[in-house]
Amino acid sequence: MKCKFVLFLFYIIFLFNTNLLSNDNNKILRVGLLAPLSGPYSEIGNSLLYSLQLALEEINDNNVLIVPRDSGFKDKEKLNKAINEMRLSGVKIIIGPTTFEEFEQVKRYNDLVFISPSNINPEFTNNIISIGVSLESQIIALINFIKKQKKTKTVIMYPKNQYLDLVEKKINNLELKGIKTFAYSPNPEILTGEIEILTNYSQRKRSLELRKKMFQDKEDEESVKELEKLDQLYTLGNVNFDSVIIIDFGNNLKSVLTSLVYTDVNQKNVLFTTVNQWFDESIFYENTIENLYYPSVNYKEFKKYNNRYFEKFKIYPNEITILAYDALGLIYYAWKKKGEINSINDFSFKNKIKGKIGTFSFKDGKVIQELDIYKTDNKRFIKF
C-alpha cells in the first residue's frame, strides 16, 4: 500500500512538472507549493498536495499549474533550494510556508508572494499573507456573539505555556473594553486551585454553610423547605462573570471545563465558549458541559471537502489542507481580476471573498475570517 502511495505521489509531481515544461505560454499561472514532502511531517505535505489537486479540478483551467517542492522540516538549506527552483520555473506566488518559524527565511525573497496557511500573524507582512483561522478572528466572532447574548462580564482564559506572551499581545492589540483576562497553569493539579480562586469558590461554599445553619435548628414548615433547597446546592452566590472564552484545546480544554463545573459555575447563567476546535468530536464525551460554543469554519463545506477528499484519495485530510484549497482559489481570483500577480498589494480587495472555510475580508493590511458560531448539542455540531 505504501509503495502505491509513493508511486501515486510521484505521478502527481511528474504530471505537474511535465505540464509546466511543455507550456511556454506567458498567460500561465504558476503556483508553487512549499511543503514538507519528506521527513516527519511528510503526511501534512502530501495532504496539501492532494488538496491542491482537488482545487485544480474545481477551477478547471488548464492555464493554472502547480509547482510542488519539498521544504523539509526546519531545514533552511532545503527550504531555500526549493524556493530558488520554483523561481527558476517561473513561479511568482507560492502557497507556504506552513510554519511561522520559516517566515524570516522567505521574507528575503521580496520578488515573490507567499500565501501561508499559518494563523499566527493574520496580516500582510512584507511579502507574506497568512490566511489561517487566526485567534483574532475567533475572538472577534465570540465577542460579537457574547454581546448578542446580552452578556457583559467576560473573562478570557488561557494557559501559561510557550504561547503566553503571544496570546496576551494579540488580546491587547484587539483593545477589548470591559474584558478581564485570567492565565492559568496547564498542570491539572494546580489548575483546579487557581479556578477556585477565580470563582471565589471557598467564600461561596462558606456562604452556603452559614445560610444552612440559619435554618437547621428551626422546625417550622418554611424553614424545613428552605433547608431542603439549600441541601441541593454546592455553593451559594454567583461568580463575578457571565461568560468565558477559553483559549485552549484537547485534554487541557477538558480540564478547564471540568474545573469550572467542579467549582459550581452555573451553566444557565454563564456562557461557555472556546476556540480552535475544528469540529473535534471527542468533546461530545465531555459530559460535564451542557452547551459549549465556539467559532469555526463552515461545517457543511468542511464536511463536504473531507468527504470529497476521502472519495478521491481513500484517506482523510489534515485540517490545514482546506486552507491551501482556499489559498489556490484566492490566488486564482486575484489573477483573473488583475491579469497578473506581482505583489501582496494585488490581494487588497474591497469586496469580501467567499471560500470553503468561510468569508475573507482584507482591511488595513489584515486578514479577517467571518466565522460561524457552533455549539455541541446531543453529540452534534449545531450552527447557532
What do these coordinates show?
By secondary structure, this protein is α/β, with parallel strands linked by helices. It folds into 2 domains: 2-133 and 299-369, Response regulator (Rossmann fold); 135-199 and 239-296, Response regulator (Rossmann fold), CATH 3.40.50. The protein is built from 12 helices and 16 strands. It has helices at 2-22, 42-59, 76-88, 103-106, 135-148, 164-173, 188-198, 201-216, 221-231, 250-262, 299-313, 321-338; strands at 29-35, 64-70, 93-95, 113-116, 124-125, 128-130, 154-159, 179-184, 243-246, 271-274, 293-296, 353-354, 359-363, 366-370, 372-376, 381-383. The strands form 4 sheets. The protein has a 6-stranded mixed beta sheet. The chain has a 4-stranded parallel beta sheet with strand order 8-7-9-10, sandwiched between helices. A 3-stranded antiparallel beta sheet has the order 11-15-16. A hairpin with a 2-residue loop joins β13 (359-363) and β14 (366-370). The relative contact order is 0.12.
Give the count of structural domains. Answer: 2
- Cα shape: elongated
The count of DSSP E runs of length 2 or more, i.e. the number of strands, is: 16
- In what range is the share of β-strand residues? 15-25%
What proportion of the residues is helical, as a percent range? 40-55%
- Show unreliable segments: 1-15, 17-25
CATH topology of the largest domain: Rossmann fold
Main-sheet strand order equals 2-1-3-4-6-5
Mind summarizing the main beta sheet? Answer: 6 strands, mixed
Mean of pLDDT = 84
Q: Can you identify the CATH superfamily of the largest domain?
A: Response regulator
Q: What order do the helices and strands follow?
A: HEHEHEHEEEHEHEHHHEHEEHHEEEEE
- Rg to the nearest angstrom? 25 Å
The CATH class of the largest domain is identified as Alpha Beta
* Span of the ends, CA to CA: 42 Å
Number of helices: 12
